[in-house]
Design a protein that fits this description.
This protein is mainly α. The protein has 26 helices and five strands. The chain has a domain of about 140 residues: Up-down Bundle (Butyryl-CoA Dehydrogenase, subunit A, domain 3), CATH 1.20.140. About 65% of the residues lie in helices and about 5% in strands. Helix 12 packs across helix 21, helix 15 packs parallel to helix 26 and helix 16 packs across helix 20. It starts with a helix and ends with a helix.
């Protein structure tokens, strides 16, 4: 893929994980102004003024990038000079982007933060347009000439991955003028996503309900807490109120998502790909068979998911099962996990990763690298982002729950991945695709689960951890595969000429909810209101992204079990995968590490593991 797309993927590489409150009580909002829990962005720029000065300098470098057009065929030195200049600008852009996006995440209401993010989108589009001639010019050189240049100029080695990918995608690359026009339009094409974010995170008026004697605002974060409440009536009222609120925006959100879907299909058609899925996967050299195999194997495994739901109904002692019964703990626990304890547990759980990994984790946790606590205007979820040479920054909404503990370990999987890749790779190959990124973070989850099972103090605590492991497999594997299937259906429908709308998305999503949750088999009742859930999933605005959670869960399940068991060589193999960055295509990288995600084997291994957990849960419940 082109270097600009690789960088954009790196800039947007953020994993969002649902956060919940412990059952039976709502956690009081902690003090988000405590400086211990806010990251120190002065490591990036000392002030907003310094950021803006750098932005203007980078904008001033754009004409020189465009002026290099026509020079790549002169000789190897000219090719290196042009690519080095582009890399230097992209590296500066990454730093600018992270500074802007992190502040937008912590307060989406602030006009200055909104403006700063829009300035960055515009600047990215300008730079992408200025260098859009590069890929066609490299492709015009041909493989033989590129090989000759690589032999003649050692300084081109760090650009080799880019050169190889550019040649591979030659048949899908348009004329330089067309590429420049599309790059310049990229901020406009991304506006539906920004509009959705602004509506949901800032402008929408969210209702409140009374829970445990206090008023709780049901925005995304409030809903994610309240839906796990132990009182079924609280959950029912939460769902009715929250989804009624989303229903007000069904038409608007449907229009925004339809625009995103159509954009993907148009891009695929322009570039000669058979589908939007194929176009998206081709950027990272991932076979479309990966997504198709995932969906097929997940559908075959639905009896295991339904078995889990039946166990949930039994342990919760419910007469029937509704969608709002998915989120409360099957085995309650009153234990809380303040962020200090979450850090200590994560450090202990990651010991099987080896001293190199642990050294980086200890150092990062000793610095102000995290924005930890919820606050008004702060976006929901969690993510990790990085600046080359400065390491990682982790965004959390910590609630002192077990889910927050798991999220902490998950995001630091991304964080240490970033640090290891930056230490081992030049800037040009230090980024990595989400295909590998989520494998890194979910492997951390697997190791955390193994640690918590080893240290469980009694049967009840062990059952609680097993319950959480089952819920993670449901949420990270089955749910994400369902999302991937929804994306395939939506893009296929638009490609067939069907009109898309909020109502159409609700119909498509409802069919999948019923299938995955066994509505026709009497496993779970799907109330019509929850069929609007598609509107709540921001990941659909990054098409063909969510599937990586499911594929990565399968890969991480295998890695985590083998590392925890001390299987010879696996820990170092895994660390080497993290160090590789984008120097090896992601599918090939995992395949060489022993996991081929285009075949049924990894998914079948995961399903067997889930059935083993269900077996133990059923035995413990019976005893």
């Amino acid at each position: 893929m082109s270097f600009r797309l690789t960088l954009l993927a790196a800039l947007l590489c953020a994993a969002t994980v649902p956060l919940h409150a412990r059952p039976g009580a709502m956690t009081p909002a902690p003090d988000a102004t405590d400086p211990r829990w806010a990251w120190d962005l002065t490591r990036i720029y000392p002030s907003d003024a310094a950021w803006n000065a750098e932005r203007l300098e980078v904008a001033g470098a754009i004409p020189a990038l465009a002026a290099a057009r026509g020079t790549l065929g002169r000789d190897a030195a000219a090719l290196r000079t042009a690519l080095d200049a582009q890399s230097a600008v992209w590296q500066r852009l990454q730093r600018l982007w992270v500074y802007a996006s992190t502040q937008q995440s912590t307060d989406a209401r602030a006009p200055r933060n909104q403006e700063r993010s829009r300035l960055m989108s515009s600047l990215w589009g300008q730079i992408a347009a200025a260098v859009a001639w590069t890929d066609p010019e490299i492709q015009a050189l041909g493989a033989a000439k590129v090989d000759e240049y690589l032999r003649a100029e050692p300084g081109l080695k760090k650009h080799e991955r880019r050169l190889r990918d550019t040649l591979r995608l030659a048949k899908h690359t348009l004329a330089p003028e067309t590429e420049a026009a599309l790059a310049a339009l990229s901020p406009v094409l991304g506006s539906p996503t920004q509009t959705r974010s602004q509506l949901i995170d800032s402008d929408a008026a969210w209702p409140s309900i009374e829970i445990d004697g206090r008023s709780v605002k049901l925005n995304d974060t409030g809903y994610e807490m309240a839906r796990q409440h132990a009182d079924r009536d609280v959950r029912r009222r939460t769902f009715e109120t929250f989804w009624k609120a989303y229903g007000q925006y069904e038409g608007t959100l449907g229009t925004l998502l339809a625009a995103r879907v159509e954009s993907g299909n148009v891009n695929a058609k322009l570039r000669g790909h058979p589908s939007a899925a194929a176009a998206s996967l081709a950027q990272f050299d991932i076979p479309e068979q990966v997504v198709r195999t995932l969906v097929a194997e997940t559908n075959k495994a639905l009896p295991t998911l339904h078995r889990y739901f039946k166990l949930r109904q039994k342990l919760l002692k419910l007469p029937d099962l509704h969608y709002h019964d998915i989120y409360p703990k099957m085995v309650p626990s009153a234990r809380s996990y303040p962020v200090q304890e979450a850090a200590a547990i994560t450090l202990e759980a990651m010991k099987p990763m080896g001293e190199e990994y642990m050294g980086h984790l200890r150092t990062a946790l000793s610095m102000r690298t995290m924005h930890v606590l919820p606050a008004d205007g702060k976006r929901s979820g969690a993510y990790a982002t990085g600046v080359y040479g400065l390491g990682t920054f982790v965004f959390l909404n910590h609630q002192d729950t077990y889910d927050s503990l798991t999220t902490f370990a998950h995001e630091w999987g991304h964080g240490i991945h970033t640090i290891l890749a930056q230490r081992a790779q030049p800037f040009e190959t230090a980024s990595y695709s989400l295909f590998v990124a989520e494998t890194a973070s979910i492997t951390n989850e697997a190791l955390l689960t193994q640690h918590m099972l080893r240290t469980a103090r009694d049967k009840s605590e062990r059952m609680f951890v097993l319950d959480q492991a089952l819920e993670r497999l449901r949420a990270s594997f089955f749910r994400q595969a369902m999302f991937a299937e929804f994306e395939l259906q939506a893009h296929d429908a638009q490609q067939r000429g069907e009109a898309l709308s909020g109502r159409k998305f609700t119909e498509l999503y409802c069919g999948l909810l019923r299938k995955y949750h066994g509505a026709d088999q009497g496993v779970m009742t799907i109330d019509p209101q929850v069929c609007r859930e598609w509107a709540y999933i921001p990941h659909f605005h990054r098409p063909f992204y969510v599937y990586v959670y499911a594929t990565s869960t399968a890969a991480a399940s295998q890695f985590g079990q083998d590392i925890a068991a001390g299987k010879p060589g696996v820990q170092q193999t895994f660390v080497n995968v993290l160090k590789a960055g984008s120097s090896v295509p992601p599918y090939q990288l995992l395949k060489e590490a022993g996991i081929d995600l285009a075949t049924p084997a990894p998914y079948q291994t995961l399903v067997r593991h889930m059935n083993d957990i269900l077996d133990e849960m059923e035995r413990l419940a019976a005893s």
